[in-house]
Sequence to fold (503 residues):
Amino acid sequence: MSVAARGLSHSYGELRSLERVDLAAADGEVVALVGPSGCGKSTLLEIACGLREPTDGAIEVGGATDAAGRLARCAYMPQRDLLLPWFSALDNAALALRNRGAGRAEARAGAGALFERFGLAGFEAARPAELSGGMRQRVAFLRTLVAGKPVLALDEPFASLDAISRAEMQGWLAGALRAEARTVLLVSHDIEEALYLADRVVVLSARPGRIVAELGAPHPRAEDRDHAVTDPAFVAVRERALMALKEGAR
Amino acid sequence: MRTALRILLPAALIAALIGLWQVAASTGAVAEALNLEPFLVPSPAEVGDALWNNRAVLWENAWVTLREILIGLLAGTAVGIALAVAMRFSRLLRDAVFPLTVAVQAVPVVVIAPILVVWFGYGIWVKVIVVALAVFFPITVNLLDGLRSVDPEAVKMMRTLDASRWAIFRRVEAPTALPSFFSGAKVAVAVAPIVALFAELAGSNAGLMRLIVQDNANLQIAEMFAATVILIVIGVLLVGLTALAQRLVITWR
Fold:
């Protein structure tokens, strides 16, 4: 399912957050949005998900332009994992199924089938407080995936993790995205993460966010992360992205 | 060890105080100091005797007071929960009803109880109404605060997971509000016995307060103390059971 924004602008009162953004993601494409803090990346995701309306311009998600239609097509993974502490890992992952009226057993069976594949087997009954940061993010991603929406909106999914866990989770997410053909909008402040996980990286300027560069990723979702990110082609694109980011920040 | 100390220390302190009182009362030291007849200052042993010998009349009246407290608590809590939930779902209702609930809460029990006695008589229901009136406010205010403290990001997340308004309430808002609800409930169970006694004072034909007033007139001081002991036990049990319920319900903290 494709996503297309044309001339998209957004303001919080007087504060302009996005300025005439044209953005397209083809069916099954992973598009990363990078930019300085406060450049409207998260706002753009929320607009795509139907959680906000643009002040100007148009956005279309799989043919739907209204908020309810976009909401029905996008699943949103927020920056913080927001796992509900009163539910087990399994019940957290199964939330979307429960919300749609599935019984507890049916919802658990639906979400539980994916636990093994996501390295969470044996932790079904664990409460979020008993899980490591990386595992919590995996459950949060699983929760987003189980919703079965064609478009995934991931808002800095690993920002809260330490460097080692983050690298590990990036490798893990690349694998998960190889296996799941979904259209993905990924917000990141980490260029390396964006270039490694996405097919295409869109660089936004400082507020109000506008697009300053679009770069194709050399080895999207490669099997071996450490190898991919040290490859000369990867390093060269990363330098170009950094330059664009610096220019946009001025 | 730590747990044992937490039980042993207060128990030892209470035992020591009772022992001190026993000595002071049985030797007549307190009565002498206050220039009173010794029978006006009963020792713990005499209070114990009164508890046992007058158990029929004490229990009969304690059961009346306990029922007033429990039915009032249940009714007040039910109304309090219903009001808070309704006000959470409707902004209009909250704006309309909240000032009224504050006003109702501001009416002193000592004023409202005698009026209700005139209207409804000496039976249990005046006390139930007064307890419910005193109890619903801490429940409503705390629960509403708890419901409003929900993380807006969690609500967004639930919306993209196809949650209805009711599903968001059930799975996110209500559990979020539980600790606040229990804060309100603890205030409610602490206030309920006091209010029930005030209401009995305004007019009653049974209950521990009526018994205490009667004993006071007849100088049956030991039985007054016995009734007080029963009230303390009721109060401690109510607070203890509420704390226990909180621990059983909120398992994720």
